[in-house]
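hiii, so i know i said id send this last week but things got crazy w the move. better late than never?? heres the sequnce for the chain we talked about at the cafe, plus the structure i predicted for it. fair warning i was half asleep when i ran it
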Amino acid sequence: MAEISTKPYMLRAIYEWCTDCGYTPYLAVKVDGATQVPMEYVKKGEIVLNISFGATSGLKMDNDAIHFHARFGGVSREIYVPVNNVMAIYANENGQGMAFEPLLDQAPAPKAPAPVEEAAPAPTLASVPTASAPRSTDDNGPDDGGEPPKKGGRPTLTRIK
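okay and structure toks below
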C-alpha cells in the first residue's frame, strides 16, 4: 500500500488555523493542464487564490484536490486545483503558513466535471498622449472656444469676476 501524503492534511490544518485566527487564507498554485482556474489571471504559470469563506462557495479540500466556486470579475467560476500543484498556503495578513514543492509529474487526472468556457481576453492599458501646449488665458477667463471643461484631467481654478 502506498504511503499517504501529509500535504493535504497540512493544507487543511493551515486553512483552519487561518480561519480560527481571523486571517485570510491564500493558496499559491502552479498552473498546468490538471488545474482549472481562470487563465487570464495566471502569471508566469502561477496563480494566487483567496480561499476564505467569504471568497469561495462550496470549498472542499480532499486528499487529492481542492475545488470550489469563486467570483473573478463578477463572474462565478469553478476552480479545481490538484493538491500536488499547491506551492504554498499562508495567511495574507502576516505571511505565515507553509510552502511545498509542487509535484507536477505526479499530478492525478482531474476530476473536474466540465471544462470552463473561454472568457474574453482581459482588457489592456495603453498610454494617452499628453497635450504639448499649455492652455492660455486672458482677463475674461479661459480661451477654450466656448467648450465646456474636460473631465478627468488635472483640476484647475478659474477666477470669475
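btw The chain is about 10% helix and 30% strand. thought thatd interest u
miss u guys!!
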